[in-house]
Give the backbone structure.
Amino acid sequence: MDRAQKIFVPLLAMAIFLALWEALVTLNHWPDYKMASPSDLPAAFWKYRSLFLIDAWQTLWRTVAGLVLAVIFGTGLGMVMGFSKVARAGLYPLLVGFNAIPKATLVPVIALVFIGQHDFNTVLMAFLISFFPIAVSVGIGLSTLEPEYRDILAALGASKLTIFRKIALPKTLPEFFGALKVSVTLAFIGTNLVEIVSPHGKGLGALFLSGQTNSDYPLMFAVLIALALLGIVLYYAVVALERIFAGWAERGEG
């Protein structure tokens, strides 16, 4: 029953959202050049199906690459901040200040610094926009680790890496996966920022710009739905990993 609920409730929610969207367009008598409706989208998906497959893959692999880098770097940075009060005091203001910068303003800077490196620029932006939640969650999780455990293991000769693997990592896993779910959506935002602000003819962002240039609103909204679907798929991939590595936390809550 619980598994069926987890499947059908999200599907029902999406169906209600699409129905409300369709009703909004119909009741306001909006033409498709002003606001596309869900019923306009299947034709757009079919007409540009080959482009959707190619560009969706371009967006997906660069998003995943940026997210993987964010996990590696964010976890490492979180370990440094979690185990060192000095590093935590010094790095937190820098991280908060960097995260407060609108990432759209960084796209032209990155494009100028790395001219012509379109794939690298896209992966870099996905990484820059998504590592912050991971670093903060790991850092907070480690900094709140019970000192008794740390002192006992240290007295037994355990290194900080061993303490991290045996005690800190299991403790921070729920917070880590919570942050990773947020980072998934942020990584897609970073990827599409580069594809739209600094276009290079690749990815769903480029397909969106094509629809905008040609005033093809069904295509534009179809791209938005495709992005949402990719985000949902990647989100549930993280949920599956969470159940494998931190399922005990969810069971403990029940």
Notes: The chain has one domain: 48-253. Residues 48-253 form a domain with the MetI-like fold fold (CATH 1.10.3720.10).
